[in-house]
Each structure stands twice: as C-alpha cells, then as structure tokens.
Design a protein that fits this description.
Length: 174
C-alpha cells in the first residue's frame, strides 16, 4: 500500500504559521482545509495504489452530510458500516483514468493518524500507465476553501498538482 512520503506536507503550513496544528482550539477551528491524495503505479503488482489523507473533523462532517447520520472515525459504532460509508464517499468524489480507461477503485480500509484519516484503495490488472486523469472534489461540499493536493508516481517519475474549489480535474503524463 502507498505509505506517505509526503506526510510532512500537511504539517508544513502549520509549522510555518506558528504551530497552529497543536493549538488547543484546533478541533474548533483550523485555517487550512487540505487533503492529500497519493497515487502510485506498482509495475510489479500491475496495480495503482491510492492513499487519501483527510482531516478527521472535516471528513466526519462531509460523511455526516452525505449519509445524514453522526460519524465518529475514532470510535465507530459499526466498523463495517463506516467502511462502506468511507468507500462510498471517496468513490463518489475521486475518479481516476489510466490511459483513458476508467479505474474501479477497490477500498482496502482506513487508519487514523493523529488528526487525519488515511483511506486506502487500489485498482488492479493495469499493465502500463502513461497518462493519469484525476477528478477530485473531496470535501468541496463541506468547505469552499478546500484544497486537494495530488502526488502521482509512475516508474519512479513523480508529479504533483493541486486543485482548489471549484477546479476538479487534473492530468499527468509520464
């Protein structure tokens, strides 16, 4: 599974701005609305691996809005249901195409890391990747200030980009 090479990227703005991430009122307010999506093609496994890092408080609000129920990522009452809700939300808001072919993202699970949730997906049976198209509007319905950062890696070649509301699409050629 893709493990974050860029975990620091989410922390950098907070460190630069006076360590707001660790401020006591962080849960009530944070000045940045950012997600990071890492997409990596594994030639050995012939699959694309995807990891999305999303602030838990924002993610819980977006899930609550979609499913009209209270969501607790830290202490889920029904883990199986929560997994279905997470998969459904991300599959609705994140779409990938590799070389023009729409990919079916298979949910692999999630884990909590501090104030963020990592959600993992994969798409298999992919022989080569020369072009990746991404549709990403994660959390746009929650905050118009949302920024979605994408990192892609194919055969050691890494490319990155960002989408800010209302932009939803980006493409990388390798």
């Amino acid at each position: 599974m893709v493990i974050s090479l860029y975990k620091w990227l989410l922390l950098l703005p907070f460190l630069v701005s006076g360590n707001l991430f660790f401020h006591p009122t962080y849960k009530e307010y944070h000045p940045y609305y950012v997600s990071v999506t890492e997409i990596e093609y594994s030639n050995a496994d012939k699959e694309i691996q995807v990891a999305c890092k999303i602030f838990t408080d924002d993610f819980e609000q977006a899930l609550k809005g979609m499913y009209n129920t209270k969501i607790d990522l830290y202490h889920p009452k029904d883990k199986v249901l929560l997994d279905k809700q997470i998969a459904g939300y991300i599959q609705k808001h994140l779409h990938l195409k590799a070389d023009g072919k729409t990919l079916n993202l298979n949910y692999a699970g999630f884990e909590i890391e501090g104030e963020a949730a990592w959600c993992f997906f994969s798409a298999g049976n992919i022989t080569t990747v020369k072009n990746i198209e991404i549709f990403n509007d994660l959390l746009y319905e929650h905050k118009k200030e949302q920024v979605n950062i994408m990192h892609t890696k194919v055969n050691g070649d890494r490319k990155s980009g960002r989408l800010s509301y209302p932009d939803t699409g980006i493409q990388f050629t390798f």
